[in-house]
Automatic annotation (TrEMBL), chain A:
It catalyses: a quaternary ammonium(out) + ATP + H2O = a quaternary ammonium(in) + ADP + phosphate + H(+). InterPro entries: AAA+_ATPase, ABC_transporter-like_ATP-bd, ABC_transporter-like_CS, P-loop_NTPase. It comes from the Bacteria. One of its GO terms (molecular function) is ABC-type quaternary ammonium compound transporting activity. Pfam families: ABC_tran. Belongs to the ABC transporter superfamily. Its EC number is 7.6.2.9. The keyword Plastid does not apply. Keywords: ATP-binding, Nucleotide-binding, Transport. This is Carnitine transport ATP-binding protein OpuCA. The complex is composed of two ATP-binding proteins (OpuCA), two transmembrane proteins (OpuCB and OpuCD) and a solute-binding protein (OpuCC). It is an enzyme of class 7 (translocase).
Automatic annotation (TrEMBL), chain B:
Residues 24-203 form the ABC transmembrane type-1 domain. It is found in: Cell membrane; Membrane. GO terms for cellular component: plasma membrane. One of its GO terms (biological process) is transmembrane transport. PANTHER family: GLYCINE BETAINE/L-PROLINE TRANSPORT SYSTEM PERMEASE PROTEIN PROW, OSMOPROTECTANT IMPORT PERMEASE PROTEIN OSMW. Keywords: Membrane, Transmembrane, Transmembrane helix, Transport. It is a multi-pass membrane protein. PROSITE patterns: ABC_TM1. The chain crosses the membrane at residues 30-50, 62-83, 89-109, 154-179, 185-207. Belongs to the binding-protein-dependent transport system permease family. This is Osmoprotectant transport system permease protein. InterPro entries: ABC_transp_perm/SBD, MetI-like, MetI-like_sf. Its main location: membrane.
Length: 256, 217
């Protein structure tokens, strides 16, 4: 039986000056090794939910358990070191070389030099960048797609069991995006980690996720496999999402 | 006449090389001490301003006001309190140098993008690590510019320190003024100018080696 990686129960988050709950009574159970995508428009609470999982935000109500352990009782710094985190702006440190960026987390955990060196090489190979070409360069010398690969490598550095990704492909062009989606699937398949990826791109969500969380106004509308969602949309919002995507497909066919 | 000045200047260097070098040494000493103190106080003050936003207005405006007071006035005002000499001179120079260091620290720290700080926390850095490994290094170029501005102002203004008996190149200039000796005015003035240029070049060099990443491509 597979282990439960993430259990989110009754989680609600309300920001101080907001009228509505950013995240509204969310319940999700995610198994180890799943690739979950969270789909929603901006303001739907998907990013907030992700940040609650690595304790960048504190929920007002509810509990989150990672592999059975309530994160409220785990030190936030320790917790974040055990979770990979990638954001849309990537956030590579411009004053550090690529190797130093990737080595950030291992250095915090005080790995020895040789181990760090080997790990950096392995990770760069994993994300498809030649270590000797890239190690000593600075982030500003890389293209957006290359930077995002490094962001991914940095998040994977200490082999976290859970990866949280907040629109990691939001800032790269359409072709690079398709490439990186395939890379993500390949990396996920090889590592048996639990991936949580937030996106507002319906195609991306349905292509990458083995299950999809669809969020709207802080609530989870539906949480199911792509097939089941298309077959049985849970509410208006979900069916309108699918409808809009279908229309786009028709539009392209019409042009062809 | 022109020949005369050259001869006089040559004469000065022949007879007073020792006191000239001592004047340079004094000048640099006062300047460096003042700069160090301004950095040691200014950078933490800047950090406090950013961390506790309520204090920012008060601290920044205090130093803005202090900056408006002419250095010469500060020097003279300090005489009744501190007496004459090096100490008073250094205090006046520190007051002069604080604003650029402080304000550039504030701006530098504020300009570090939120997502950068967030991704540092996301990796699992503690608050201290975020400060030392991300926020300060990224603010460094601006802080450094502030230090450079401060240093140039200090070296120029340290000339006035001689007025209250703190020595330095100002001594040569004031003697030149008193005796109506153009040669001394030139020697003093040009040397201060050259010192300013030399230190700013040196600081620029340090800047370029420290912040290599800014200059790739």
């Amino acid at each position: 039986m597979t282990q439960k990686a993430i259990e989110i129960s009754n989680v609600t988050k309300k920001f101080k000056q907001a009228e509505y709950n950013a995240v509204d009574n969310v319940n999700l159970t995610i198994d180890e090794g799943e690739f979950i995508t969270i789909l929603g428009s901006s303001g739907s609470g998907k990013t907030t939910l992700l940040k609650i999982i690595n304790k960048l935000y504190e929920p007002n109500e509810g509990t989150i358990k990672l592999f059975g352990e309530d994160i409220a009782h785990v030190d936030s710094v320790q917790l974040r070191r055990s979770i990979g985190y990638v954001i849309q702006q990537i956030g590579l440190f411009p004053h550090m070389t690529i190797a130093e960026n990737v080595a950030t987390a291992p250095k915090l955990l005080k790995w020895n030099k040789k181990a760090i060196h080997e790990r950096v090489d392995d990770l760069l190979n994993l994300v498809g960048l030649n270590p000797s070409d890239f190690k000593d360069r600075y982030p500003s010398e890389l293209s957006g797609g290359q930077q995002q690969r490094i962001g991914l490598a940095r998040a994977l550095a200490v082999d976290p069991k859970i990866m949280l990704m907040d629109e990691p492909l939001g800032a790269v062009d359409a072709i690079t995006r398709l490439h990186l989606q395939d890379e993500l699937l390949r990396i996920h398949g090889g590592l048996q980690k639990t991936f949580l990826l937030v996106t507002h791109d319906i195609n991306e969500a349905f292509k990458l996720g083995n299950r999809i969380v669809i969020m709207n106004e802080g609530k989870v509308c539906q949480f199911d496999t792509p097939k089941n969602i298309v077959a049985n949309p849970a509410d208006e919002f979900v069916s309108s999402l699918i409808e809009s995507s279908r229309n786009q497909g028709k539009f392209w066919e019409g042009l062809g | 006449m022109e020949n005369n000045i050259w001869l006089q200047m040559k004469d000065y260097f022949n007879n007073n090389m020792d006191s000239f070098l001592i004047a340079i040494k004094e000048h640099l000493e006062i300047s460096l001490i003042a700069l160090m103190i301004a950095i040691i106080i200014g950078i933490p003050c800047g950090y406090v301003c950013v961390k506790f936003k309520r204090l920012e207005k008060q601290i920044v405006s205090l130093f803005q006001v202090l900056r408006v007071i002419p250095s010469l006035a500060v020097l003279l005002l300090l005489i009744p309190v501190m007496g004459t000499g090096v100490k008073s001179a250094i205090i006046a120079l520190v007051l002069l140098a604080m604003p650029p260091v402080l304000m550039n620290t504030v701006v530098g720290l504020k300009e570090v993008p939120d997502f950068m700080v967030e991704s540092a926390y996301g990796i699992g850095m503690t608050e201290k690590q975020v400060l030392w490994k991300v926020q300060f290094p990224l603010a460094m170029p601006l802080i450094f510019t502030g230090i450079k501005t401060a240093m140039i102002e200090i070296i120029a203004s340290a000339t006035l320190a001689a007025k209250i008996g703190a020595g330095g190149l100002g001594g040569i200039i004031f003697t030149g003024l008193g005796l109506n000796r153009t040669d001394l005015l030139l020697i003093g003035g040009i040397t201060v100018g050259l010192l300013t240029i030399a230190t700013s070049l040196l600081l620029e060099l340090i800047n370029r080696t420290m912040m290599k990443y800014k200059y790739v491509r």
